[in-house]
Fold each of these.
Amino acid sequence: MVRRVLVAAAVLAAAVTVHGQVTFDRILQADREPQNWLSYSGTPFNQRYSRLTQITPANVGRLQLQWVWQNRSLEKFEATPLVVDGVMYTVQPPNDVVALDAATGRPFWTYSYTPAPEGRPCCGRVNRGVAMLGDTLYMGTIDAHLIAIDARSGQPRWNVVVAKASERYSITHNPLIVKDKVIVGTGGGDGPIRGYIAAFDAKTGREAWRFYTIPGPGEPGNETWAGDSWKTGGVGVWNAGAYDPETNLVFFGTGNPAPDWDGSKRLGDNLYSDSVVALDADTGRLKWYYQFTPHDELDYDATQVPLLADITWQGRPRKVMLWANRNGVMYVLDRVTGEFLKGKPYVKTNWLDGFDAKGRPNRVKFPSPEGTLIHPHVHGGINWAPPAFSPRTGLYYVASWENSGTVAVQGQFPRAASANTRQTAMGQTTLVPFFNNDTEPYGVVRGYDPQTLEAKWEFKMSDITWGGVLATASDLVFSGGREGYFLALDGRTGALLWRASVGGQVNAGAMSYEVRGKQYVAIAAGNALFAYALP
Amino acid sequence: MRATHFLVILALVGAAVSASPRAVLAQHETASDLVDGERAFRNSCANCHGPDGDLITGIDLGRGQFRRPMTDDDLVRIIRTGIPNTPMPASPMSVQQASTIVAYLRSTAAARRAGSVAGDPARGKAVFDGKGGCARCHRLNGEGSRVGPDLTGIGERRGALELERALVDPGADVDPASRFVQVTLKDGTSVTGRLLGHDTFTLQLLDTRETLRSFEKRDLRAQAFLGSPMPSYRTALTPQELADLVRYLASQAKGR
């Protein structure tokens, strides 16, 4: 009897330990539990691909709204929620963490955090989501703190200062969990910061390593900054990182050099601005980098979400990274070595006319006092919204802006080339009247073949988009845009299969999860979170 | 005054005004302050408000249009403290720094309003109400048609040169929010009106009978943007009548 009791207790303990406890193994193998959404884009590969198949192209037309959770903020709602064993965690901007019943949207608890007044990111008091390890949630804040929060009670466990908000640092992206560390980057790179990526002990908040995105004196790359410009050269990090367990590398995209519009005081390539950096996850040491836009004067942050995929490349398996960049070019890189495999414009792009053998772009357009028409516009072919990849269709799904342009004037804010560019303000929450005709900038979701970087299909929207893309194992693609629709497309053809009017701008990526046998698809839009499922 | 002389003078005045917003200075600011203000505006405000200050719906900083009347002190305070519960953040700027931004915005708005045309507003009103037939399409202080853009307070939003250009060459620079469209339904019926907005699936307009209409694009056979339906007054009015009308419109401020 005693033995039975002990066995039962042990089983119970194991069940309790597993339920609500997100081990790093679970994060790495998140594909095995598609009912959950354990990190920003689903897995550390950032494919934003759900293996749930209850909702299909045949029945998606019957999707119904299950619940709406309205936040109490007027800021842009950019977060992708996590779902762990029926509990959803998201962030009410700027920095309140909320736990909801994922089946009903009813709140369990709210952790309210008031950022210091000097925490004021350039482009909105936003947050893109939390990370979770064990039973602890982690959030970066707009005043550049990293906070650990008990996932059951919503009580803070520790709160560390990553950087000084008074020096214009901020954190707006979801942290990356690797083993026992929480990794974040510092935003604020439009100002005179020196950006960095830092890892913190998940239990204590103690800093484990730090990688400066601008090399210091004596370090390789410091010579790419004229004079003392490296000290205030910007290069913030403000979007999700990726992790590859096979190489133990973490990948982050880096932001523009500062000042953004005037390169004359920072002559040189300005490493590692507008780059992807591959860092040893245990030490933060740089293993390789690839700079997309050397000596940027057009604000082409490379702060897109790194997407890792294992594909067949020129007849043999290859571990690659797919990257639709703000600079208008789409890239395929070898993620083990950083080798440039292919680059090709995916929106109207005129600042380069090709690459050298190592993938360095040949730049042909330069800002000038008299003005130079440069494509794409400052907001880029894509800005930060998360893309998706389906191993089933083999397509890389990207929501982008097409046909925008600007006249860049050296040292000044870019002047609009035409009324067209009036339509590219930073995302807002509410719907705004839209007056463009079909020849002016528009948003578009496309499915690209990574082999050729050719679009196999496209779904064109009237208005531009700040929304991300979700792919599912039933070959569906979900996206949305500034005009306030949440859309389901056929992942193989791009055909519109379903739409819902969400009454506010979609400024986030969708995700999917399952509770008690029902698959949900959730999207943040306007100031609310919407969950849809079949009846 | 001969018409050519008048137009040359008008053009010179307009050029002086439009060449530099800093040509008209606020009373206590120096040109250097305004340069500082412009720089600070572009660094701190333009990301959300746009380089011309008009990207937030209902607000046009470069033309002095706010959600409610603002004194300089109001604006300085808002720049420094933000607006609670809105995306407008607080800024650590000093009062002096914030004041340079306000001075820059005020000077820009003033420059856009300026322009002394040799016209008479009283005679201009007569042209507006009579020969010009403006109220057939435009509304002014609560009277007239809603089909064209409402001209109430137009003098606060457009300078004389812009007004004159809109009268003689109305199709040259149509505000995107004032575009006309024609939609053709599948039964062949056509509806024309001012576009109030559209998206991938729907289209909203105010038709020529001043009725709000909304269409599903799938129900349309065709849709097309039209040129400005406004006739040119280049020859329809005499130069003096044109100058009078411009002066009348330039004198329109909200609340009058």
Note: Chain B touches chain A through 29 residues (CB under 8 Å).
Amino acid sequence: MTTQSEQTGAPSEKPKRPSSVTFVAVLAVGYAVYSLVYGILAVQSGDEDRLADGILHLVLAPGALTAGVGAFWLRPWAWALFMTWAVIGLTNQILRSLFFEDPDYLDMAINTFAVLALSPLEVQIAFGVRHTENVQLSRATRNPLDRH
Amino acid sequence: MSSSPAPPGIPSTATDPELLRAFEPVVRFTSGEQFFPMDVERYVRSCSLWLYHPDDHDEQVIPEGALTMENLTEPRWASFGSVLYLRFIRPLSIEESARALASLQRLKRNQKYGFRTGLGRLARGGLVPRLVDALFSATLLLRGRVPKATAAAAAVDYAAMQEGGEKYVYHGRVVRQGGWTICQYWFFFAYNNWRSGFHGVNDHESDWELVNIYLYEQDRRLVPEWVAYASHDFHGADLRRRWDDRSDLALEGLHPVVHAGAGSHASYFTPGEYQAEVPLPIPERIRQAMEALARFWSRTLGQAGDRQSPFRAPFIDFARGDGLSVGPGQEQEWTPDSIDEKTPWVTAYRGLWGLYAQDPISGENAPAGPMYNRDGSPRPSWFDPLGFAELDKLPPPPLELELLETECATLVARQEELDCLIAREAETLQQLGIRLESMEGNPHLAAQHEKLGKQVAELAARVKALRREHSENEGVLDGMTRRLERLRAGRRDDPRSHIRHAAEPVPPAHMRFSRAAEIWAAASLSLLLIGLVALIEFAPEDAWAGVVILLIALVLGESILRATFVRTVNRVAVILALVATVILLVHFWKPVLFGALIALAAFLILQRVREFRA
């Protein structure tokens, strides 16, 4: 006896979250908590030099939290949010590195890792931003029998 | 008892003109088309004849008004590198150009000109194709080009000719080759105004288009089997459709329906708007580098490949079929004109049928006649109409079954021969093999062992080749037998199995963009250039950083309007991540190297520990 999903070939299970995505999501949530704490402390300190920075962190914290939670649930908008964030962050750090010589290498490395973790096709498919029928994987065969 | 209906066709006793009449196509033009198929005689009478000399000067051979079909074909001596050509519109002064353009506007008003590109023409290509399009247009300043006023004057002159006697003409020819009877319909147009009239690739004086209909004889009837239309970017088998292929080929009785591209006059089976790929010449090294990058992108980075080259311009061929329809039972009927190898203007005039614009890539130069290429060499579609549509390898259907049976019998005989050969050779191989094995461990037999070893290896290769041939033949025979059974049962092959690339109109959803996208597409390149100027003027020290930000903002902004944000943001992010990786490696190569070595060491230790435990 065959089930309906077997007959139609439709996937019966939810896509599995790749571990790299989990790691990126944890990083985002961690960054959100850090920004929140940093922002509150900066605002409370009353130091005028740190005030603008503190407000910026308080604004960024909910965004990072939303992206992190969305990534846990493999939501397509979370993928788009992460990539947009990474584009802005990487552009900023690369330009600082090339033209102003004061880059934040940790930020650059984290954004690079996030992009490399979220951009592979299988990850995009898991997030639902790309559909399998639109994708043609062009990796060569690894099976030696196919070559003889 | 029921008899099967007679296949479509006409008695094989029909004369050539009757044959051409019976299958003449219906051509549907796009609303706004200004040039229709005409007779060559009226055109030639309003032309002058010129000779371009290799020392870069043009000589008028026969002036306008004195040119006839007779003196056109007179033999003329010309040096190597010279080009004989007709000139429909003489060079215009500024005043005459302005008058021609104004007359065209009046003509369009009188004709109730009805062509609109529709929203999205500019937005159909991305930023890079638009940049390439702009560069392509700029190259027209350097290459030879036909002036826009020439197109206007040609449209006015052609309209005047039609007013003097409206006629829609095809030049028909019947050829018999390889068991097929081919009806060729050559359509001559006074002008191709694709670029100036419909935002296309090129303009040139005169235009030739071709429709071929392939017939076979059965039960004393000539039955149509294939139809082939000349079209951009397509060659060989892709040009033809089978008579019963209703997914593409529309028929009105025995008349195939052609949808002509606006201005370009290229022929399409179905109405619609076609994206024309104009391959721009890029150096081989750049092309190879781009292919290597594409492989790295898809195989190493695991990204989806882009099927379209960025080096394409967003040209559209509008073959909407919503304008004048010419053919049997249509608004206008054909006036046929039979041609063959004895028709003087076909065979004796090897020059161009319009202005030689000296365009090195020939897009703006007029074509030669039906029998010749621009360089005067014979045109394959004339001398080899079967090869034109890759039909030279196909027998007419009544001969197919017999040929297939013969081929099957030949292959079966070869398989039987191979069975015997393989058995004999394999037995010999085993005998030699056992002898070779027996020589092992006897140093005094080293020389014989080596000699025999070579013999065994050669024989083994031969046996392998025979077995391979046998195995491959099995597959071929299987396919042929199944096809034979299908044909015997009266079932035909898939009518579309020969098509590798079919010309398909772009779906309207892919062609129409919002007004915002259209405005953006029109303005973005200019905005980019203005932004560059502003950066250089107001922030020269940060200009490079500003250019990068400007480009990324433009690309992402455009992707939102074109609904391709996900793909674009992914691409931009990966490129930035690669640049960042290089920067990080340059700055932290020592820790990265140490980290990699420590990780490798830890991995090796772990492997050994696992081996100890096992």
Note: Residues 106 and 129 of chain B are 35 Å apart (CA to CA).
Amino acid sequence: MGPALALVGSVLTVLAALGVVRFPDVLARMHALTKASTVGLVLVLVGGAITLDHPNDVTSLLLAGALQVLTLPVAATLMARATYRAEGIRHEVDTVDELAEREGRAGGTGEGRGGGT
Amino acid sequence: MITAALVLQAVAAVGFGYRLVAGPSLTDRMVGLDGMLVVGVSALALQAMATGEGAFLPVAVVATLVGFVGTAVVARFIEGTGG
């Protein structure tokens, strides 16, 4: 059971790496990394927690998994917003830009601090 | 089965390493670095499963926390410098 979960998680990590290599856009690459790689890592850690039986090992693995689930989406959101403000994004694929409307209302200037598109 | 998982992690590390070296923007490089960190934590867990020895597992917790702080700091840096 545990090694099978670890294998499935590793397959998901490989898929995340494939998306990071192949996707054409910064935000698409970040999407591939954040979704697939979070689930893959948590599957590997849960597989390890099933396989090992010492309580120290189990708590370390589960704590690492919980912290990863909590922090990786937050980090990806920070990176995506920083990229949006600094460089702007391509509007060919995603036509709806809710962040611009929101920042236009909130900030007043309408443009990001980096002066992007 | 754990050996196959380690081989898959190595393949993923090659992909993330390519994006870390060749990524056109700083955000691309940070995506590659985050992926390398995920591969590293997974490799620690897989090594503990293979040997039954969990002495390195607290390193996985610390690497997770340090990786988050590093990503947040780089995000602030990108936002400040404009790319």
Note: Chain A touches chain B through 53 residues (CB under 8 Å).
